[in-house]
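# step 3/5: fold
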Amino acid sequence: MISIQYDKSGFLFKNLKKKVLLVEDAESILLAINDYLSKEFQIHFVTTIREAQHEILSSLEENAPFDLIVTDIHLSDNTGFDLIRFAREYSKNTKVALITSYEINDYIETIYKECIDQVITKQSRMSLQDISIMARKILSDDIFGIEKYFPDIRVYYPLEMGDATIPGDKEVFSITIKSTKEKIFWINKVAEILCKKNKMPMATSRLVMDELLANAIVRAPRFEDGSFKYQKRNEHTFMLIPYDDIVLEPEDYVIFQYGFYGEWVIFTCQDPHGTLRKNEILYRLHRHISIDPENSLPQGISDSHGRGIFLLREHLTNLIFNIHKDRKTEVIGLYHTEQDIPYKNISIYEKD
């Protein structure tokens, strides 16, 4: 086999000395993040909202605004949400991200209303790496590729795979999906592989792959007027129903990848349309996590779509959305076989 190798960083840039303001009142966490990021970025760190506001205003006076602000949600004198509002008022081009040791779902309504697309839990075993990757992706605009998370992974394509269907360690196989029949075949094949290798429960792997591929095959392709190519509206319920036995046009082919890296099971799904939007993802998560006080059920339980995003986030250890508007969407799903409790990070990268 011939593999595609990536450089050690997995990114297109090196030595990107962008300015990052880190706001965290736990000294041990503050120093750990600072040490981890300081070789790559100009880190300024403070422990309170008031100090952060002073830093932001001073940087503007010096005509050297921060490129990124990473703030804890809970601080001694206010919340990270308040700081983000302040930053957006005074420094509109500065990117923002939240970190927290609390349950992210408790803040999903505010996260949706404030349109915050990066929230990382400090309880995750990858938290420092997550913060570093998040900063690099935001500040470089180089957002696609599983190699961002596993720099020495090898990606194999059909001609290189031959008849092989089982990746080795640190390997990902890349498949082109052209129809719903091929989708079903590969879901069954990969679920069987994962089950035999004791990597992932069959029901969970089927659900994850079905949700990833359904969105890419059914909802992503659209005509120029915005209508769906492979769905029709039921005249009685007005709900959209996918066509049976879909055969995709060549411009709609979907790239599906699966593989392993140590204890990680990796899935990626790419469509060439980029029609998924950050606001839609946050809205759907909010709808399915928030409870309707009248019936104690999720607000989105009767929505015609969106439950797939919620289910993916519930069953995967980590879920990442990479979107180039109207060009490409990549969804990366990571499942850790030793710690299958989801981190609940919200990671959405969207560029024009």
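# step 4/5: annotate
The chain has a mean pLDDT of 89.
# step 5/5: archive (pending)
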